[in-house]
Design goal:
alpha/beta, globular, 9-stranded mixed sheet, 323 residues, D-Maltodextrin-Binding Protein, domain 2
């Protein structure tokens, strides 16, 4: 017994001298509700990271602006206080103006065109984020943006006259609404529902997933199917965090991100029509089909104004991928 006791003591002593296994934990934030397609994409990414790392890495997802606004979270990446973020190119334009290329109105022919452009031109532009402290891993999607308001049916740009429309703090979105005759009002996404409820703004523009999951149909009367912009959702990691990872961990993160992007895009495409069916089924908002040609014509000056900012060569590269 004495010999057994001594052996046990030695085993315990040795165990205490071995460093405990330290799991690598990364915090990922975004502004969407948990049921939103890109929120599901974030959760799927976290699942893939855990699987591919054999449980040695964990991604903790914080939805619904828990870690702040898109701008706050992106700044968190730069300073290393947040590890990962799903955000919009409209937000990234504040940190690297060329990223605003993808916010130009009516830029893409269809989703396939958008994916082709993002996976080539978009990834090249993403490299220019790295000196700012941001590493781009790929592009999920927010969806195709449409206009809603609480004042009148919008069927033509003339119907936009005087409408106060919430937009992101992005010059292209601001000028797009101006070109259509509306009055753009920059505002954080988390403030939007109450602003529409209280009449601070008349309307907003977002994809179907946000209109439904954020219940905007409760405080809006009309939805116009303008499809005026496609909204990518870049997957970003802090360069400070990235530099701390081993090569093997970096490979896990990039592989998981690439797979999650493909998975999320398919989910988002499939759910887009389903969300519109759900929105219509509420009976609280009138969904209006519009002739997009007048809207496209009215917003052409926006392209000319921002070509020097985003690069005419980049615009040409994207347009060349439409066929």
């Amino acid at each position: 017994m004495k010999r057994f006791f001594m052996c046990a003591v030695i085993v315990i002593a040795v165990a205490l001298t071995i460093p405990a296994f330290a799991k690598t934990v990364l915090k990922l934030g975004h502004i969407a509700e948990v049921s939103h397609p890109y929120a599901q994409g974030a959760d799927h990414f976290a699942k893939l990271v855990a699987e591919k790392s054999g449980g040695e890495m964990e991604v903790q997802v914080f939805p619904s602006s828990q870690l702040g606004s898109q701008k706050d979270m992106t700044e968190g990446l730069i300073y290393g206080t947040i590890d990962m973020v799903l955000t919009g190119t409209a937000d990234l334009g504040q940190f690297q103006p060329k990223m605003s290329l993808f916010d130009l109105p009516f830029l893409f022919k269809d989703r396939a065109h958008a994916y082709k452009a993002l996976d080539t031109v978009g990834m090249e532009l993403g490299k220019e984020l790295e000196p700012r402290g941001l590493k781009l891993l790929g592009y999920m999607e927010n969806g195709i943006r449409h206009l809603t308001n609480n004042v009148r049916p919008v069927k033509t740009p003339a119907d936009m006259a005087g409408l106060k429309i919430r937009v992101m703090s992005n010059k292209i979105y601001i000028e797009t609404i101006k070109s259509l005759g509306g009055s753009p009002t920059p505002m954080a996404f988390g403030e939007l529902y109450s602003a529409m409820q209280q009449g601070t703004v008349d309307g907003q523009e977002n994809p179907s997933a946000h209109i439904y999951t954020k219940r905007f149909f409760e405080v809006q009367k009309y939805a116009s199917m303008t499809a005026h912009a496609y909204a990518p959702e870049p997957v970003l990691i802090s360069m400070i965090t990235w530099s701390k990872l081993s090569d093997a961990q970096k490979a896990v993160i990039q592989e998981a991100a690439t797979e999650a992007v493909a998975w999320q895009r398919e989910l988002s495409t499939n759910e887009d029509n389903a969300y519109w069916d759900k929105i219509k089924a509420t009976g609280k908002i009138e969904v209006i089909e519009v002739d997009r040609a007048p809207f496209m014509e009215a917003t052409q000056p926006v392209w000319k104004e921002f070509a020097p900012t985003v690069g005419q060569d980049n615009i040409d590269k994207v347009l060349a991928l439409a066929n």
